[in-house]
């Protein structure tokens, strides 16, 4: 059994945090040469004899040998040229191919190949296996799918795959750029953990020490391997993959993304929305997230090391916010009216909790430490590295906190006299 399956099996189901921690992921295999055993693993997991293999031209090439391993299965194939952005028409197309059949889906690739499969298989109630070709993001175990419809990217409730397979040889051979992106997506967890704790302190949102430490140990472990990320090293690639899976499992344990994403993911999400609206194809998720993470760590560090603020109530010019969001304004309205996430937070509460808030910020590695690790890991570091104008980054930092009903330290900025 892989380490991570052991963690899943041994994790307390009924936890002292009040949640029952469950995941639908039933089998995770990580190891060398597993590409040759995919058929066998699917059989062991009760997959039907018919399979729809979904991939793109790059990922099917990376997974060389996978089709030979499927002897005995009746395989239909859907090989896309290239999917950078998962769109609803991909989902519909796949649904048509599997509707009414006794068939399972084998998704070969990463995010944008897996996301339509996750939603199509959930809607048609089919089994899903993800065969990962790069350790590039943390969504493998996720039960939601980010999908673009009419130029808008939203997250749809989908399902976690029953089986996840990572062949370390293939993961290690993935383009360096993708491995570095995965590292950036992991460093983001430090900000996510801080935001989650702060929300727990101020709003009483459920916070689970056990789940938080699952994420924390996964990132800490990876930080130590930063210098190996760009190497074609199987052990490191396997570890990155495992860490990404651990944070994915942590999310399903909480049934939300708190253990793996904070203000930096919302900033990156808004960047992506604005770009999609302007017809620009977004970067790899982990690159934008990594840069947004450094921006947040710098800001959070300044807050923690500055003088104690003079706390005030939030005072936002929502007309200005809505103007920025343009045709996205309806969702932003719903997230803030008739009431919003900071309504219950008073300046007195902030004053009383300030030491704990600062403690939460200081509990994670600093901007400098994370930056150094990211440089070693070949990550993109600055907004110009990811090809964005400074103005776009500044606007997304300014406006993203209103996008969702979720408390982050970034959202509290207006109450800190900043
Ligand atoms: Zn718990
Ligand atoms: Zn992410």
Notable traits:
alpha/beta; Dehydroquinate synthase-like, alpha domain; 2 domains; six-stranded parallel sheet; two-stranded antiparallel ribbon; 8 strands
Question: What can you tell me about this protein's structure?
Answer:
It is a single chain. The protein has about 425 residues and is of the alpha/beta class. It folds into 2 domains: about 5-165, Rossmann fold (3-Layer(aba) Sandwich); about 175-205 and about 260-415, Dehydroquinate synthase-like - alpha domain (Dehydroquinate synthase-like, alpha domain, Up-down Bundle), CATH 1.20.1090. It contains 16 helices and 8 strands. Helix 8 (about 210-225) runs antiparallel to helix 9 and helix 11 runs antiparallel to helix 15 (about 365-375). The relative contact order is 0.12. Bound molecules: zinc ion (2 copies). One zinc ion (ZN) binds near residues 19, 21, 208 and 210.
